[in-house]
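Need a sequence for this fold. Nothing fancy.
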């Protein structure tokens, strides 16, 4: 019996008219066609648009705008010529103050729907530069033989291919204005097809570009890369395997990027592939808000969970009696210790621990803490929250990059652990994108 292959149902080609009713958490417009929900890129509530389908599933469909029949007052012209093709941004069509208002609304909605909580008091949003703010990124690299060109940048929207872009306005100008020059330099290399990505790390004063190389560059390749580095005032490094293999070009000095917290007299050293906040202006404001909220004194013993290289730990230690920082990545813990020593801060301890696992046997986990800071990954902190019964903190400040897991964990803190939600708010860490960074305060 002959078997026929199942084919994906062909999408309608004719444009369809729809009225946008609301926004998703990632900033897509939501509407309905024949009772089926449709998610549409770059569409705003209240707008009537014509769209074409880009995907259709049993329960939902996706599309993109081909014509605006009416425009929301918040709509503006995108500030980047590559917007809509490059997938790095999703909010450039939204007026800047409206972007943050939408993100606050999304946070409020997530708390109600997931955490079953109402935010009764909001912090004023933390805002900063809307362009040129991004100092950390992992950029893709691809040699396209048909065009005899090396592309450098980010993937196309909803596609796995690299977008053909010449610049990036959200990246710091030291890199964002040099994508074309980077591609032209890589095109001259014998290993141009063996460089899949570049790790970008821009400190307060230096820019480091770590090239992932699947084959070692030749001496001529290194000479070309060195000339580029000197011409553009950047440091070029090579990464043969994992993050710990990043090294400078031959005969070039190692450049260590740093970022500072001038209000607190602290400077952090970090390696290119290490996690740091991408937006230094918002990071400084965020740290100041945490310190003002916790109102630390020398009687406080603070626990900093998911502490990274000590971004919150060290400034908190300037004012608290003692701070313990916990992080799952051992190299980050080692770097946090080195940063504490570099800054002459002695009232801190750092430990490596997987906070998604049982840590009750750890000696530090059996202590009491007056205040706790949580700054987890997108997965949130649900596994570690039950230990608050042991630690008994008076206050908990939760910094989040995912409003849905923050809302879930807020529900646990309030409904199961007896804390009150005092206030919450958003921080514009990633302008022009749908990413929502937020903070919440809980008090016993």
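Here you go.
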């Amino acid at each position: 019996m002959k078997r026929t292959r199942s084919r994906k149902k062909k999408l309608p080609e004719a444009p369809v008219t729809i009225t946008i009713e609301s926004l998703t958490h990632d900033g897509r417009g939501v509407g309905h066609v024949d009772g089926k929900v449709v998610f549409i890129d770059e569409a705003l509530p209240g707008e009537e648009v014509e769209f074409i389908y880009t995907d259709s599933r049993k329960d939902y469909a996706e599309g993109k705008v081909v014509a605006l029949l009416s425009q929301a007052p918040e709509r503006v012209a995108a500030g980047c010529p590559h917007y809509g093709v490059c997938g790095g941004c999703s909010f450039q069509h939204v007026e800047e103050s409206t972007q943050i208002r939408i993100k606050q609304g999304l946070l409020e909605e997530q708390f109600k729907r997931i955490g079953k909580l109402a935010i009764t008091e909001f912090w004023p949003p933390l805002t900063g530069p809307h362009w040129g703010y991004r100092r950390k990124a992992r950029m893709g690299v691809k040699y396209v033989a048909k065009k005899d060109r090396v592309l450098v940048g980010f993937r196309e929207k909803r596609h796995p291919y690299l977008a053909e872009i010449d610049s990036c306005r959200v990246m710091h100008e030291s890199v964002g204005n040099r994508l074309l020059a980077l591609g032209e330099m890589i095109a001259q290399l014998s290993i141009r097809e063996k460089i899949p990505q570049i790790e970008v790390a821009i400190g307060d004063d230096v820019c480091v570009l770590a090239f992932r190389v699947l084959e070692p560059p030749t001496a001529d390749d290194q000479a070309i890369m060195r000339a580029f580095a000197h011409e553009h005032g950047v440091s070029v490094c090579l990464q043969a395997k994992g993050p710990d293999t990043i090294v400078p070009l031959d005969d070039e000095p190692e450049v260590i990027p740093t970022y500072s917290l001038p209000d607190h007299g602290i400077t952090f050293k970090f390696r290119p592939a290490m996690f740091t906040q991408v937006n230094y202006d918002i990071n400084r404001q965020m740290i100041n808000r945490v310190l003002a909220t916790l109102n630390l004194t020398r009687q406080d013993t603070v626990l900093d969970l998911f502490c990274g290289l000590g971004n919150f730990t060290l400034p908190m230690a300037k004012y608290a009696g003692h701070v313990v920082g916990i992080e799952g990545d051992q190299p980050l813990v080692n770097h946090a210790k080195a940063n504490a020593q570099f800054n002459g801060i002695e009232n801190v301890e750092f430990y490596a621990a997987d906070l998604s696992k049982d840590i009750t046997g750890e000696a530090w986990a059996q202590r009491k803490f007056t205040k706790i800071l949580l700054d987890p990954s997108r997965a949130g902190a649900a596994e570690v929250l039950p230990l608050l019964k042991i630690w008994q903190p008076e206050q908990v400040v939760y910094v989040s990059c995912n409003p849905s897991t923050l809302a879930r964990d807020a529900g646990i803190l309030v409904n199961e652990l007896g804390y009150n939600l005092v206030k919450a708010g958003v921080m514009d860490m990633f302008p022009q994108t749908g990413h929502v960074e937020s903070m919440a305060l809980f008090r016993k």
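For context: The radius of gyration is 24 Å.
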